Amino acid sequence: MIETSFNPKQTPGPTSKGRRTILILIALICGVGAALIAHIILDQKITALEQAAQHASTKSIDNTDVIVARSTITPGTLLNKDNLTIRSTPKQWVPSYALTADEFPHINKKTSPHTLQVGDMVPRWLLEHTQQSASQHIVETTFLPTKKSEPKVMMLYGDDAINAIHPAPPP
User: Fold this and answer.
1) CA distance linking residue 44 with residue 27, whole number of Å
2) Which of 14, 42, 105, 146 keeps 20 to 30 A from 2, CA to CA?
């Protein structure tokens, strides 16, 4: 028969100092493991964000070509390719009143009634308030000279009009 008796002094196992060392080692192993797992997860998220940013930068932005002032335009300035230009602008930044590139023929060679600064988008209402260029509206009329001199020439601009034309008296 085997006798078994319990004697606390004979219990195999670590001492209290040994237990502390084992617990510290387990804590260190868990801490290093958690740091490695966090590093892997953060690397994956950073890689995903960089790929998304790269995809967004290579993705084509929906642009609209708008007409803008190339130089400062004062009232009475003839609008043409010398003082207007086409600028590609992201569609979400283009206001509804801006004239687009396909509307350039409607504004070309008209006289601006308002001031536009460099880079200003040409507003649609300007199209409705512009005047035809002076060369398209000049009416040349010869008047009977009052003195012995050259005939006089009259130029009409914009909304100027002749109300009546009277024939010259017979000589």
Assistant:
1) 26
2) 14
